[in-house]
Design a protein that fits this description.
The protein is of the alpha/beta class. The protein has 7 helices and 8 strands, in the order ααβαββββαβαββαα. A 5-stranded mixed β-sheet has the order 5-4-6-3-7, with helices on one face. A 3-stranded antiparallel β-sheet has the order 1-8-2, sandwiched between helices.
Length: about 220
């Protein structure tokens, strides 16, 4: 995804969300963050955060279930636009309501965040676990086993398509619903010490979207 890039055995995980978090936490009084070389698969990440094995997750959406388990800051660092990736020849350039997508086979992250519209039980969703889910679902869509690839964050779809040289083959169409927040999320224990200073710093530095846009323009 555009916010976090997997590292290698010799390089750490990086990306605009990582560099932005480091900037925020440094101003909040945390001088060093221990970041694994590879992002956790989502299901493992949620388990580790709930158990306290890790202190925070860099970028998560908010749902009622997650809000019970984790500590969320008072505001997100990014407002995401939920969207579909469609093939260029799809007849849909605008999605007007849920009626437009009820008959679609939709690729999603297994246990991933779903925006309110995507929680409708009538939808035909196809969960996929592991890493590189957007890219893998795009390849499945090429084989006509999916009609759409979902992300709660249109930036993720655009970035993945550009980074893997298939942007000219697709279009990204917003879902007919409001934007949703993307948060840095703390374990309940860690939040006691750090969440207030995180919130204060977030209000004082440049918006993440400015940071993200600069990253995409400089790297693609």
């Amino acid at each position: 995804m555009p916010h976090i890039e997997e590292g290698t055995s010799n390089t750490p995980t990086k990306g605009p969300a990582i560099s932005y978090l480091k900037k925020v936490m440094e101003k909040a009084g945390v001088t060093e963050l221990q970041i694994p070389p590879k992002p956790y698969p989502l299901s493992r990440l949620l388990q580790a955060l709930e158990s306290g094995k890790i202190d925070l997750a860099v970028a998560l959406g908010k749902s009622p279930e997650r809000a019970k388990k984790f500590a969320y800051p008072s505001k997100p660092f990014l407002q995401m636009q939920p969207a579909f990736m469609l093939l260029k020849n799809s007849p849909y350039d605008i999605l007007h309501s849920i009626k437009d997508i009820l008959l679609m086979n939709i690729g999603i992250y297994e246990k991933g965040f779903l925006s309110p519209l995507m929680r409708d039980k009538r939808l035909r969703v196809k969960p996929l676990s592991g890493n590189n889910v957007i890219l893998r679902n795009y390849k499945i869509m090429l084989r006509e086993r999916l009609d759409a690839v979902y992300s709660p964050d249109s930036y993720e779809l655009i970035y993945t398509a550009k980074a893997n040289s298939f942007f000219n083959n697709i279009k990204v169409v917003p879902l007919p619903e409001p934007k949703v927040g993307l948060y840095t999320v703390f374990s309940k224990k860690t939040a006691i010490k750090y969440i207030k200073s995180y919130e204060k710093t977030l209000n004082e530095i440049e918006p993440y979207e400015t940071h993200l846009t600069r990253f995409i323009n400089d790297n693609l």
